[in-house]
TrEMBL record:
Residues 454-574 form the Response regulatory domain. The keyword Cell membrane does not apply. Keywords: Kinase, Phosphoprotein, Transferase. CDD domains: HisKA. SMART domains: HATPase_c, HisKA, REC. InterPro entries: CheY-like_superfamily, GAF, GAF-like_dom_sf, HATPase_C_sf, HATPase_dom, His_kinase_dom, HisK_dim/P_dom, HisK_dim/P_sf. Residues 212-432 form the Histidine kinase domain. GO terms for molecular function: phosphorelay sensor kinase activity. This is Sensory box histidine kinase/response regulator. Transmembrane segments: none annotated.
Length: 576
């Protein structure tokens, strides 16, 4: 690095700036900024700025370099008159080297009149000789936070001092460049925001449709699973028919699990978060998908020693995102190739990724494959609903993944270089927690013994309450039925003073056009503070299901459920 006092030159010209010179600078400023009001192509305006500066400083070429603080390097952003070979050699210029590098290092204008003799250019002599750069003058410019973001420079083909006019020209061009770059940044953020808004609207629209369909489908699968299970209980053990029924029940359960992915689009799909170690969630999900394949899997941890990779997440949903990405990568590589997962922390998401940043620190998960990559012309569409490049794809996997990460306050992006694979990067707000409290284990003790008691089932779907009552009777309970919360409250109040009171209630959370479980439980508790009520819903991710005790419930049962899950829940609540 060159010390500043070594290159100060007291012999600099002190010629005055003529009125005509001021007029030229004013004309330059008005020409560029006047067009900038209506012109959105800021890159072209920056090129024009360089060209106009060159006209006012004959026998020189202008360049704009942007500073990467993270790398400590400068990169050419605009240089219309400089050959590409010279630009390639200039890119990645280290701070403290040459006129531009020293301008950034010292945060001060640098005027080098002879590059072959000046110490500031000792590390760039070869560049100066190769491209005939005899003199180079550079001034730094700053953003609204007074941070250096780049330099504006004039390079001359002959040894000479910068005149007062040329220095003023550099200052003027640097100021104009800042304005144009700020507009360019604004336009990029505006485009990004518009894309995010459009994508959110698409997701919202499909979410309304998907939520309704998935909820109804989930209810139907509950009836199918329940009837298959009840049928299997009366079949001869180990019979061929029993095996068929068990297989059908397993497939039905899998179909029900798939509906939870659709419910992620609806309000019932909001993540139910808890502290989790992201490395464990990602590793388990990735290894599950790749089990038995020919794809190699590796993990790279770029976190500081002792730095926990903990976030407040919905384990199931984040696992689903990872599985969707890994499945796509596995298919793209035809069950061959390699996948690398990199874990790291960053303090701020880059502006070109997301414009609305809320967290102070992010966990970053990069999933890189060695597949053929995604063509650049469709990379922006990979998260759009129904967009797919696979003949058998439905185009929902990545749209779901994008929705999940967004609901976690994070962001999901895809980047690719054709023929070099695809990289999906997940940004999630990091937790400040250093470790996770492990909950006490809970063991279900339901053993199938006949129970005693009276259970009310509140559900507006006839097939659902019929199969629920059949299961309850198989378990040994007496049952009564209510279609909605109003009926349930009235029935409970009537029976509380009878010889055969209701011991426990199973309430559907949502009753279209009627009182649902959330409101009904409060009315029942106002009648009997000791009432035992279980909330039941196909929206397993609803906040009421996750925090049922806060709403007055004693337990939560996700649809569809089997007879063992039902028996275990009743056993725990009644014995509590």
């Amino acid at each position: 690095m060159t010390e500043k006092h070594l290159f100060q030159d007291s012999r600099l010209e002190e010629d005055s700036i003529l009125q005509s010179d001021f007029d030229e600078l004013l004309e330059l400023q008005n020409s560029i900024l006047g067009v900038a009001i209506s012109e959105d192509n800021c890159s072209e305006l920056l090129r024009q700025l360089c060209i106009m500066a060159e006209k006012l400083a004959p026998d020189s070429v202008a360049s704009i370099m942007l500073y990467s603080k993270a790398e400590g390097k400068l990169y050419v952003h605009a240089a219309p008159s400089i050959p590409q070979e010279a630009i390639d050699a200039l890119n990645g210029l280290q701070v403290g080297i040459g006129s531009c590098g020293n301008a950034v290092y010292h945060d001060e204008a640098m005027y080098v009149s002879n590059t072959l003799k000046d110490n500031r250019w000792c590390a760039s002599r070869a560049y100066a000789e190769t491209f005939n750069v005899s003199a180079c003058w550079s001034v730094p410019f700053h953003n609204e936070l007074s941070e250096i973001i780049g330099t504006f420079a004039l390079s001359s083909f002959e040894v000479r001092e910068a005149t007062q006019f040329q220095r003023k020209l550099l200052d003027t061009c640097a100021s104009i460049a800042v304005i144009l770059l700020q507009k360019e940044k604004y336009l990029q953020q505006k485009i990004l925001w518009e894309k995010e808004t459009l994508r959110s609207e698409k997701l919202k629209s499909i979410g309304v449709l998907a939520g309704g369909i998935a909820h109804d489908f989930n209810n139907l699968m509950g009836v199918v699973i329940g009837n298959l299970e009840m049928t299997n209980r009366v079949m001869e053990p180990n019979s061929k028919a029993s095996a068929y029924i068990a297989s059908a029940a397993k497939a039905s359960q899998h179909a029900s699990e798939l509906t939870q992915q659709l419910l992620t689009f609806s309000k019932g799909g909001d993540p139910i978060k808890k502290l989790a170690n992201l490395t464990e969630v990602v590793r388990e999900s990735a290894e599950f998908v790749l089990h038995g394949s020919g794809v190699s899997l590796s993990f790279n941890y770029r976190c500081e020693d002792g730095d926990a990779f903990i976030a407040d997440i919905d384990n199931g949903q984040i696992g689903q995102v990872v599985q969707n990405i890994i499945i796509n990568a596995r298919q793209a590589m035809n069950d061959d190739g390699a996948i690398k997962v990199v874990f790291s922390h960053i303090l701020e998401i880059p502006d070109d990724v997301i414009s609305n940043k809320r967290a102070h620190r992010y966990c970053v998960i990069e999933i890189q494959d060695t597949g053929p990559g995604i063509p650049a012309d469709i990379i922006d569409k990979v998260f759009d609903p129904y967009f797919t490049t696979k003949p058998t794809g439905n185009g929902l996997g990545m749209a779901l993944s994008f929705s999940i990460i967004k609901k976690h306050g994070g962001y999901l992006r895809a980047s690719v270089q054709e023929n070099e694979g695809t990289c999906f990067t997940i940004y999630l707000p990091a937790s400040d927690a250093k470790h996770i409290e492990q909950p006490d284990s809970l063991v279900d003790n339901f053993c199938g013994d006949k129970a005693k008691g009276r259970v009310m089932v509140m559900d507006d779907q006839e097939m659902l309450h019929e199969i629920a009552e059949a299961m309850l009777e198989e378990l040994g309970y007496d049952t009564v039925h209510a279609d909605n919360g109003t009926e349930a409250v009235a029935m409970y109040g009537e029976n509380i003073v009878s010889d055969d009171p209701i011991d426990i209630i199973i309430m559907d959370l949502t009753i279209p056009g009627g009182m649902g479980g959330e409101e009904a439980v409060q009315k029942i508790l106002s009648i009997d503070k000791s009432a035992k009520v279980i909330v039941c819903s196909g929206y397993s991710n609803d906040s009421v299901m996750a925090k049922f005790a806060d709403y007055g419930f004693k337990g939560a049962l996700s649809k569809p459920y089997n007879i063992n899950e039902l028996g275990n829940m009743l056993n725990r609540v009644l014995s509590s």
